[in-house]
Design a protein that fits this description.
The two termini are 30 Å apart. The chain contains 14 helices and 5 strands. It is mainly alpha-helical and 331 residues long. The structure holds tryptophan.
Amino acid sequence: MKKIALTGIKPTGILHIGNYFGAIKPALALSREYEARYFIADYHALNTVKDPKELSAHIREVAAGWLAAGLDPEQVLFYRQSAIPETFELATMLMAFTSKGLMNRAHAYKAAVQENLEKQEDPDAGVNLGLFTYPVLMAADILLFDSDVVPVGKDQVQHVEMAQDIAQAVNFNYKAEILKVPQAVVQESVAVVPGLDGRKMSKSYGNTIPLFAPEKQLKKLIMRIVTNSQEVAEPKDPETSQIFLLYKLFAGPEEQETLAKRYRAGGLGWGAAKEELFRAANRELGPLRDRFAEISADPAGLEAALARGAERARAIAGTTLRRFRKAAGID
Ligand code: TRP
């Protein structure tokens, strides 16, 4: 029996190539070894995205984006969190086993409080209960599906540890393994993708390259990557060039070696280096972009795929929930 890998994707912005190499590709690779359950965490996004048009657009874009990037919904259980009411019933049950003090220690909440204190505001200003109880909902997502491993970025490890704590509190109380205790996996080998300004590519820095940017925009953005003032003739160190680091993500080992030699030899200007990057990036992203357009043009087909996923997911969720309710004396 394959082990179960589960992760949630928060639809809070359009996908960029940092998401592609940092989260999507590694998750798809993992789905070949594990029984994968990947879902759109739309109720988590509601904590911050209050504009209905924006939220529904992000949900559809992110779902279509993962499918375009290669997620096969026949192989990976793919669904929307909001389509699984069992999640919210489980979250309510988990609340009874979660100390308030544990939530006080959650990084996201602590950061919000800290920011308020620095501005000399009320510590809880602008903090909604969704943010405060975020880790409980995330624990419900995870524990509902008997997850063995949860692939996440470093910033989410604490949340998975909280899910462990909560599961253990439940199991301890009933002296039985009601909920499976999950492990976080942080893929260390995942490259940090540099953004247009050389810092890590991130929505919050505004330095991203959208994954499905039309060809022209892709080229324009690549041409905008910040470089130093080295002349064309000067030999350049590929390993310290943001352009080369991006190129490496799209090129095979031989291509990387060939271009690295040209960097070191001198005579390769930044403009030409960017052309090479554009060529390699467009070669990989072109077909993705086409698939994305196709999937986006058929919203009913997308909804149907997610609905099929939700139906299968609910069958699993119901089993976990019934087990817990029975143990709790609510059946
Ligand atoms: N909190 C995660 C993030 O911000 C998204 C998420 C929601 C998640 N539920 C999850 C991740 C369950 C893993 C497992 O990226």
